[in-house]
Specification:
Elements (H helix, E strand, L loop, with lengths): L1 E3 L15 H20 L1 H12 L3 H17 L1 H11 L1 H18 L6 H30 L4 H30 L1 H10 L2 H19 L4 E3 L37 H5 L1 H5 L19 H9 L4 H8 L8 H17 L1 H12 L5 H25 L12 H21 L7 H30 L4 H30 L3 H16 L4 H14 L1
Antiparallel strand pairs: 1-2
Helix pairs in contact: 1-6, 1-7, 1-9, 2-3, 2-7, 2-15, 3-6, 3-19, 4-5, 4-6, 4-13, 5-6, 5-8, 5-9, 6-7, 7-8, 7-16, 14-18, 14-19, 14-20, 15-16, 16-18, 17-18, 17-20, 19-20
Amino acid sequence: MTKIQKPTGWKPVALDGGYGWVVVFASFLIHVILDGFVYSYGVIADSLVKEFNKTNAEVSTILSILTGVMAAMGPITSAICNRIGCRLTVIIGAIIASIGCAISYYAGSMTYLIGSLGIIMGIGFGLIYCPAIVMVTMYFEKRRSLATGFTVCGSGVGAAVFSIIVSHLIVAFGWRTLFLIYAEDEEGNNVNEKLKSAVNKDSEAEEGNLQLAQSSDEGIVKSRTNTVTESSGYLNVKDVFYPGSVTGLKEYQKDAEHFRSVTSLHSHNPKDKNHQLPSLKEENEEILGTQSIWTTITKILDLSLFTDPVYVLFVSSNFLASTGFNPPPMFMPMNAENVLGLPKESAAQTVSAYGIANIIGRIVFGLICDRQFPCKYGKDTARNRLWIYNWTLMLCGVFSCFVFLMVDEYVFKAYCFFFGFLISSYICLTSVVLVDMVGVDRLTNAFGLSLLVRGIAAFVGPPIAGLLFDLTKRYDWTFTFCGTCLFVSGIMLFIIPFIQKNKSKKVRLE
């Protein structure tokens, strides 16, 4: 047995309470501000169309690049977090995002805004978003569903509040001043001081040495509280991207201590003669997070998952869902203002309705996703989750395809509300469904690849949706395009249980 003195900056984590709730609140604020800006972009977009005399396709390119860069930054941000820590990553991201937003005040062309808002602010948002999720999962196990549920509700709050605030600020001061006001919000410093306080105070409560075992029989570090440093190693916890309570996972129920261990991240069994244990040096690198950023990225983006037909089908569905998911919140206020003839403040209420429903939806789907249903296959919770995921995407698609019939203000706002409610399942169930398909051991890899795919889809969706309006001068085709993508993304996943069943039969025959 070798004792290794804790390195400088070692910060044990207290699980399921304490200062973890401070981290939850800080992460909640991050979601409010980041998603609040993204969802309220539709309120800003109409002003940009008139200011620069550009088409909807050109203006929507800014949003597509912003959200695309933000999502595609996922694997890179994860590796940076693993190397320098979540707190410092968020600080850097907040500074970059603030700079991008502030310099947008001086924009003289659409190309300028693509660079300042799309690229610079997208990079900043990407560096902020991933750590906000990771830090919450590191502080919670049994209560993780509750903690992550509260955290992601910030997205709905941001959509509900920011759209109204932004519409009033544009009317009062103009869109240029709006960017300055947003940039002056020092959310990064405030949030990270709270994160720093939480980590520091937890570290004062626990002291001691981290013990690493060299033998195969003792090659388990038994507590998660000793696997994470303040500056590194987050991705070495395999359930770091899992938003639900780990106590519900089969791996946890089978052997809780082994599930929590660092060495279980290698997915090896000391009793398995065919699986070679990593060296002590490799083990220490995993625990202390000293692996290079590039090494971490290559692990996250391991393409071997694409040999699994179930995962390929899910990623294809995810691409279509992301393509159809991003444009509607942007075009909701534009349709309300330009087609229904509503004033800007009233048109902004469409996004508020979307945001409020999104909050409710995340809570509802979070509560029912682990439930058994009173039907033939209702005891299979994994199948229940997949069915909920599929049907909600399909219903979003159907409703969106019939927007052309919604010529009344309140009918259209009702659509915005139901769309926000139903689409929340896509947001909160993706990681859970992924675990059901590939297992928690491959979640980091699967989630990293899906983020990259969603980033590509974010680049594609808004420009196509905007182009359809420019060609037809009607928003109906924009919503129909998004609805078709969502409907197909949902219906194509119904064959997954049959693929899994056939795979199981082949394994038994072999």
